[in-house]
Specification:
The longest helix is centred in the C-terminal third of the chain and has 30 residues, at about 275-305. The protein has about 400 residues and is mostly helical. The chain has a domain at about 135-410: Up-down Bundle (Growth Hormone, Chain: A), CATH 1.20.1250. The chain has 17 helices and no strands. The chain starts with a helix and ends with a helix.
Length: about 400
């Protein structure tokens, strides 16, 4: 709820801004609100979800993001021909709607919310009694490989933004116009429709195929598309219709690959591979670097792609950069990301202790089988609905209270 208030303050300042400094201050508060939500939502989703659909539920966070991007694109397209200040004030002011929906949905007077707040408060007091973890603990060497897991979490969300989608998202209209496309606004809308639609297969695939295969093959596909776009720019004329269509098609395939792999799975990995005692801090670090990379790409893209004085003048050849970064994404997924599909959050500690990313899928299947055997030995198979639900509620309550309380404590 605090994040909603901070975000709304930023939107109000931007909407009412008559000078650039006031607008920048509004952007600061709006960005702070988005940062708070980005740190809290994936943790909340991960720890409230049963393990067999945890990945899909966390991946739905990315789907909500793509819906917002699509709506923004449509609104921008509808207001682009206005000649007064409403051309930019309306798209900004509409963001109040989503902040209001989230704020109302988090009604703290509801009995369930009050019970959750009591549980968080209790967990916070227990954590304070045992001593608070620090950000230094995120990088300590230990048998649980905390430092490796922290660096993996940060790297996943960083590479997610360095893959090139931010370039199209923030500079796509200008890029398509420079590529000779007659209606670049419409093409941007089409690309965003593809991104939103293709996130749904990713939500399904993260539990069907696992995390590693999606990240690996998604990065390979994006890399191939990016290199082809850059090569087309060198080999053909911008005025030829066929290359224009080919570039649009490749950009759509690029976004489809991202939306079904790195987009949703990028949020799943940090929310589940980190131990409870440092989970909130690691996720906050990862999200901070994520937004830093978003800013860096957005800031640098015009200077790299434009051909004015002091610019690099790369044009579409900038996709050589994105082809290289997505190739790095593929190597990172192959050698650094473990397979965590179907594992309880507690089993991931054991996975890191006794396997490597290359052997994690096989060892994970062993852990899942052992878990089923233990449940059968305890006689839970016949009363799985009641017993497992009770255990899940205890596990989820402790985990949720622990990590969310850590976020609350770190914000104080």
């Amino acid at each position: 709820m605090v994040a909603c208030v901070v975000f709304s303050l930023g939107i109000a300042l931007q909407t009412g801004a008559s000078t650039l400094p006031m607008f920048i201050v509004g952007r600061f508060f709006a960005g702070s609100g988005v940062g708070l939500v980005s740190a809290l939502v994936p943790i909340y989703q991960s720890e409230c979800s049963p393990k067999w659909i945890r990945g899909a539920i966390v991946a739905s966070y990315q789907w909500a993001i793509t819906i917002g991007i699509l709506i923004a694109s449509v609104v921008d397209n509808a207001t682009k021909d206005r000649t007064n200040h409403s051309a930019w004030r309306l798209p900004i002011a509409l963001q109040f709607i989503w902040a209001s929906v989230l704020f109302v949905g988090l009604n703290e007077d509801h009995p369930d919310v009050q019970a959750e707040l009591d549980q968080i408060s209790t967990s916070l007091n227990e954590e304070n009694a045992m001593g608070q973890s620090t950000y230094r603990d995120c990088f300590r060497s230990s048998p649980n490989k905390i430092a490796l897991r922290t660096l993996t979490s940060i790297s996943v969300l960083s590479l997610q933004q360095l893959a090139g989608v931010v370039f199209i998202g923030s500079y796509g209209t200008t890029f398509f116009a420079n590529a000779g496309v007659q209606d670049p606004f419409l093409v941007s809308v089409v690309v965003n429709v593809v991104q939103m639609a293709m996130t749904l297969p990713g939500i399904w695939g993260v539990e069907r195929f696992g995390r590693r295969p999606l990240l690996l093959w998604g990065a390979v596909t994006m890399s191939v598309c990016a290199y082809l776009i850059a090569i087309l720019d060198i080999a053909t004329s911008v005025h030829d219709l066929a290359p224009q269509r080919a570039v649009i098609a490749l950009v759509c395939i690029f976004f489809a690959a991202y939306a079904s792999t790195w987009g949703p799975v990028g949020w799943v990995i940090p929310s589940e591979i980190v131990p409870l005692n440092v989970r909130a801090k690691v996720v906050s670090l990862s999200v901070a670097v994520h937004w830093l990379c978003t800013w860096a790409v957005s800031f640098a893209s015009p200077y790299l792609a434009n051909s004015g004085p002091g610019d690099a003048g790369l044009g579409a050849k900038i996709f050589f950069i994105w082809g290289s970064t997505t190739a790095i994404c593929a190597l990172f997924a192959l050698f650094c990301v473990p397979e965590t599909k179907g594992l309880a959050l507690e089993q991931i500690d054991e996975l890191y202790q006794h396997s490597t990313p290359l052997t994690s899928a096989r060892y994970g299947r062993t852990l899942v089988a052992q878990g089923r055997t233990r449940n059968a030995a305890r006689g839970l198979m016949g009363s799985e609905v009641g017993g497992t639900a009770e255990l899940d509620e205890k596990d989820k309550g402790g985990a949720l209270g622990g990590s969310v309380s850590s976020v609350v404590a770190s914000l104080r």
